[in-house]
Amino acid sequence: METATLPIRDLCLAVAVVAVWGTNFVVIRIGLDHLPPLLFAALRFLLAACPGVFLLPRPAVPWRNLAAYGLLIGAGQFGLLFIAMRGHITPGLAALVIQIQVFFTIGLSIRLTGERVLGYQWAALVLAAAGIGVIALHADAATTPLGLGLVILAAASWAGGNVAAKRSGVRAMLPYVVWASLFSAPPLFALSLLLEGWDAIRAGLQNADAATWAAVIWQSAGNTLFGYAVWGWLLSRHPAAQVVPMALLVPVFGMTGSALWLGEALPAWKLGAAGLVISGLALGILYPRWQARRR
Question: Cα dihedral sign for 85, 208, 73, 286?
Answer without folding.
Answer: negative
